[in-house]
Design goal:
Oligomer: heterodimer
Strand order of the largest sheet of chain A: 1-2
Protein name (chain A): Sodium symporter small subunit domain-containing protein
Distance between the termini of chain B: 55 Å
Number of strands of chain B: 2
InterPro entries (chain A): Na_symporter_ssu
Structural class of chain A: mainly alpha
Strand content of chain A: under 5%
Organism (chain B): Alishewanella agri BL06
Structural class of chain B: mainly alpha
Strand order of the largest sheet of chain B: 1-2
Pfam family, one (chain A): DUF4212
Distance between the termini of chain A: 20 Å
Keywords (chain A): Membrane, Transmembrane, Transmembrane helix
CATH class of the largest domain in chain B: Mainly Alpha
Helix content of chain A: over 70%
């Protein structure tokens, strides 16, 4: 039982770590590059405008998709590694 | 064949498909009615979620908003997609593991309190009912423009169709019709966009065309657009915004509001496993992104096309003669969504920004005011006509707009009826109700919800635009934080959760009422709704994020001074965190 609890705790902290990393990226591409840091990216031009505009209208959405699939792939693997997946 | 006949064929054809699915996918048990039996393929659920989520607002209004606001309205693009990251990581897999039927189910069990459950039911019903009004009125508009019927008659037809598949099939019928509706709406949205992108940029992929080169002038499309709008006194399309705090909070409100909307969350109860719930969120966003990556392209291209129509020889030359205006302007003038007034009596349509900064230049050119008002909502609907596309594309747009409105309406109605039959009737009033009785109750509450929604659609309270802010604000400030704390904290207890939900809900609702009128009654606003009056420049639309923070803070504060939740509740929290032992959604 103690083993199981330690195992479960390790699984949960691995999940939390993954969530924190993902949400940092999530925030950086949208709130960062798309909004707050846009003036800093103004020098990098993309098709008639700047990189910040691209992140606000396309880049952040593409990153969101990549993040969810990465998270799903990684967690579904962790489920198995920790023996906590659904049979 | 007349345009009317073409529209009729497309709309009736799509309705026949929905009804066919309804007959095929009848629900025989409460489990089928609430969660489609719990066996929906994750990709298919992703598609259904996309249709469930993308409403008349996404389909009809969003591109128009972006066309008018340019970069500043990118908030909708990020806000209405970023919520899926939160759903995939913070809510969906754990709520799927919990394995019951409704959102208040989880809140009631996790916070071991029927009070918490009732607060959740109230938030759910207010958020969903306000949201469904917008869908019904959207369906009414589409009907009156494309089928030339009175919009009330249109609403009745829409209600009968939804009634057929939602009451008969419950979640099961709704799921499979939403898949069909997604296919209809995405085809309808992308086909005109592809043609327009080809015409303007030579690129058949609209998202690439957006950052491509304008074929006619040889300069980048967005640069060309900036040059034209600047010449007419408008703000640059790509201009940055100064109030970044409000932009951040508005985007955040839309994101956590999305993640907290019950009709979206319950879609993740229909997949077989926790792992599927994670994949399904990804697929949902892929299907949503097909539209959301197309929308900003449609927005900029439609704006450019509109200005090119009015100023055929460029913005520095004379505007088009009113007598020579294209047919699509004549068609939309009939609906009152485009209005022309010849203020300087020169017979031409001057369209520009009527702002003080531009007044001198306007006077120089002999203009006496902006003469053309264009409602944002028509851009997507008029797109095929502006680009001279064949009549069948217009029929497709009609069917697509209705698919977007009806699919979302059905999802909302299911969320409402399950809250009533499962949480109120079975959960509180009559816990001993039989399976058959509950299924009947679910069907009756669905029918009542449809009647109420239809009535509200016919008599829309004069605040249809504001209510969406209310729905997102409530979902963001009350439901999302309660669910998240229920999963990620073992310490937050019943009193903390109730106090938090109420604090978040009330602060948000009061902030909205202060600026938009108490209970939205016109003329009762305490402050004028202008940026100077907003607290720290935070608009009422953006307050949901602040309400959520208040919710978190109050819940933790109250929980820390009251007793920790009992062991069985802490065990429940443990169990939702680990996928093992979930099985299919439990019958109970």
């Amino acid at each position: 039982m103690a083993d199981h609890n330690m195992n479960a705790a390790a699984y949960w902290s691995a999940n939390l770590r993954l969530i924190v990393i993902s949400l940092v990226i999530w925030a950086v591409v949208s709130y960062g590059f798309g909004i707050l840091l846009r003036p800093m990216l103004a020098g990098i031009s993309v098709g008639g405008t700047d990189l910040g505009f691209w992140f606000a209208q396309q880049g952040s959405i593409l990153t969101f998709i990549a993040l969810i699939f990465f998270y799903a792939w990684r967690m579904n693997k962790l489920d198995k590694e920790f023996g906590l997946d659904e049979e | 064949m007349s345009q009317f006949a073409i529209n009729l064929i497309f709309v009736l054809g799509s309705f026949a498909i929905y009804i066919g699915i309804a007959i095929w996918a009848r629900a025989g048990s409460t489990k089928e009615f609430y969660v489609a039996g719990g066996g929906v393929n994750p990709v298919m659920n992703g598609m259904a979620t996309a249709a469930d989520w993308m409403s008349a607002a996404s389909f009809i209004s969003m591109a128009g908003l972006i066309a008018a606001g340019g970069y500043a309205n990118s908030t909708y693009l990020m806000g209405w997609t970023g919520g899926y990251v939160l759903l995939a990581m913070l809510l969906a897999p754990y709520l799927r593991k919990f394995g019951k039927f409704t959102v208040p189910d989880f809140i009631g069990d996790r916070f071991y309190s029927s009070g918490a459950r009732l607060v959740a039911v109230a938030c759910l019903i207010i958020a969903s009912v306000t949201y469904v009004i917008g869908q019904m009125t959207g369906a009414g508009v589409a009907f009156s423009r494309f089928l030339e019927v009175d919009s009330n008659t249109g609403l009745m037809i829409a209600a009968v169709v939804v009634f057929a598949y939602a009451v008969l099939g419950g979640m099961k019928g709704i799921t499979y019709t939403q898949v069909a509706q997604y296919i209809v709406l995405i085809i309808a949205y992308t086909i005109p966009a592809v043609f327009i992108s080809l015409q303007l940029t030579g690129n058949f992929l609209p998202p690439l065309g957006l950052f491509g080169t304008h074929v006619e002038s040889g300069v980048p499309l967005l640069q060309k657009l900036d040059e034209i709008v600047r010449e007419l006194g408008f703000q640059d399309y790509t201009a940055d915004v100064s109030n970044k705090l409000n932009m951040v909070l508005f985007t955040l409100s839309l994101m956590i509001g999305t993640a907290g909307l019950p009709h979206v969350i319950i879609r993740f109860f229909t997949v077989p496993k926790v792992a599927d719930a994670r994949w399904s969120a990804g697929w949902a966003l892929v299907f949503i992104a097909l539209l959301y990556l197309t929308a900003p392209a449609v927005a900029s291209m439609a704006r450019l096309n509109l200005l090119n129509t009015i100023y055929p020889a460029g913005p520095t030359a004379d505007a088009i003669q009113y007598a020579e205006r294209p047919d699509w302007i004549k068609n939309w003038e009939k609906t009152g969504l485009i209005k022309f007034e010849d203020k300087n009596n020169d017979g031409r349509i001057q369209h520009y920004n009527d702002a003080p900064a531009f007044a001198e230049k306007a006077a120089e050119r002999g203009w006496a005011g902006n003469e053309l008002t264009v409602n944002n909502d028509i851009l997507v609907l008029a797109n095929p006509e502006i680009a001279n596309l064949p009549g069948w594309v217009l029929g497709l747009i009609a069917a697509g707009g209705l698919a977007a409105a009806l699919s979302t309406a059905a999802g909302l109605l299911l969320a409402i009826s399950s809250a009533v039959s499962h949480d109120l009737i079975k959960g509180s009033i009559n816990p001993n109700i039989s399976e058959k009785g509950e299924l009947l109750a679910a069907r009756i509450s669905m029918a009542v919800a449809i009647v109420v929604a239809t009535w509200l659609g016919m008599n829309p309270p004069g605040f249809a635009a504001q209510v969406v802010a209310l729905a997102f604000g409530i979902a963001a400030a009350s439901i999302f934080p309660a669910l998240m704390m229920g999963i990620f904290s073992k310490r937050v207890n019943n009193s903390g959760a109730i106090a938090g939900m109420l604090a978040g809900l009330l602060s948000t609702v009061i902030y909205i009422f202060l600026y938009l009128g108490w209970f939205f009654i016109p003329g009762t606003a305490t402050f004028a709704n202008t940026p100077d009056n907003w607290l720290f420049g935070i608009s009422p639309l953006s307050f949901g994020a602040v309400g959520a923070m208040i919710n978190f803070a109050v819940a933790f504060a109250v929980s820390s001074v009251t007793a920790a939740p009992p062991q069985r509740v802490q065990d429940l929290v443990e169990s939702v965190r680990y996928p093992r032992g979930a099985g299919k959604a439990v019958d109970h």
